């Protein structure tokens, strides 16, 4: 089987690409940094393909289509590319970049995936949201874009149902993971990339709709949902 991981030059995407290849998949990896893509490709044991592009630019949809063609087709597309800034100065440029990558970029990639799988009448789209999707945060654009991802994925699932084809949509909701994105103070239950990749792989194989990784973040999600703002704002 073939899988594409969008945003696999580092962090969770890279660990997931290595996990899929260990499990015998042909892997296509993407990101903006060609040197990092080559590095990851060097670590992949099986067959692999690379494509260097920025999901936030207009013709990134064409780049993804080209990768699918180069691979001779794909069964699973994982959209992992994302940015997250602490943005202490609450700089507008960073806020807008977060929307361009995490929301607009996500839409570009999932639109290609949807139409491609609709034509095949079968396929699997995976998005990486976040525990941040549940409530607003001091990185407003980050939590808002992740809430967008959760909602958008559900919409894709509904469209697949209405369009009557065999589309699986999985929403992966990580807590803190040990990558360069997980910055700041007060981090806890920080999971290794490898552990998270293994749990994501299992969730994809089981065709889950939504999973927390690691699993205990489901408890934090529950608490986040019920906490009154007066308490939540102090966190
Ligand atoms: N780490 C956490 O605690 C955590 C928690 C919840 C959710 N997540 C989510 O997990 C996903 C992966 O994050 P990570 O923690 O693994 O961080 P990471 O190591 O910074 O990885 C981010 C990946 O996204 C790619 N990317 C970023 N901007 C891109 C763009 N404009 N076009 C194409 N690719 C782009 C990066 O590649 P290039 O830089 O080479 O383009 C990189 O491969 C993100 O969606 C993040 O929001 C992470």
Bound ligand species: NADP nicotinamide-adenine-dinucleotide phosphate
Radius of gyration: 17 Å
The CATH first-level class comes to Alpha Beta
Strand order, sheet with most strands: 3-2-1-4-5-6-7
Number of domains: 1
Instruction: Say how many strands there are.
Output: 7
The percent range for helix content is 40-55%
Q: How would you sum up this structure, described in words?
A:
The chain has 235 residues and is α/β, with parallel strands linked by helices. The protein has a single domain, classed as NAD(P)-binding Rossmann-like Domain (Rossmann fold, 3-Layer(aba) Sandwich), CATH 3.40.50. It has helices at 11-22, 34-43, 60-70, 92-120, 140-162, 193-205, 217-226, 229-232, and strands spanning 2-6, 26-31, 48-52, 76-79, 122-128, 166-174, 210-213. Strands 3-2-1-4-5-6-7 form a 7-stranded parallel β-sheet, sandwiched between helices. α1 (11-22) packs across α6 and α4 packs parallel to α5 (140-162). The longest helix is centred in the middle third of the chain and has 29 residues, at 92-120. The protein is globular. Bound molecules: NADP nicotinamide-adenine-dinucleotide phosphate (NAP). The site of NADP nicotinamide-adenine-dinucleotide phosphate (NAP) has 30 residues, from α1 and α4.
């Amino acid at each position: 089987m073939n899988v594409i991981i969008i945003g696999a030059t580092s962090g969770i995407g890279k660990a997931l690409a290595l996990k899929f290849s260990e499990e015998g998949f042909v892997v296509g990896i993407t990101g903006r940094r060609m040197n990092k893509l080559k590095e990851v490709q060097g670590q992949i044991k099986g067959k692999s393909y690379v494509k260097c592009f920025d999901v936030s630019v207009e013709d990134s949809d064409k780049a993804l289509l080209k990768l699918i063609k180069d691979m001779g087709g794909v069964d699973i597309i994982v959209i992992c590319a994302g940015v997250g800034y602490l943005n202490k100065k609450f700089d507008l440029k960073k806020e807008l970049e977060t929307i361009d990558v995490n929301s607009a970029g996500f839409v570009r990639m999932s639109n290609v995936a949807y139409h491609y799988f609709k034509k095949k009448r079968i396929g699997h789209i995976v998005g990486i949201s976040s525990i941040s999707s549940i409530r607003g945060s001091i990185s407003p654009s980050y939590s808002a874009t992740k809430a967008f991802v959760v909602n958008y994925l559900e919409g894709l699932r509904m469209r697949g149902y209405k369009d009557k084809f065999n589309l699986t949509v999985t929403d992966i909701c990580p807590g803190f993971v040990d990558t360069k994105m997980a910055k700041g103070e007060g981090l806890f239950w920080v999971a290794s990339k490898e552990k998270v990749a293994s749990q994501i792989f299992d969730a994809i194989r089981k065709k889950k709709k939504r999973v927390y990784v690691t699993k205990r973040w489901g408890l934090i999600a529950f608490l986040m949902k019920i906490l009154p703002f007066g308490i939540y704002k102090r966190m």
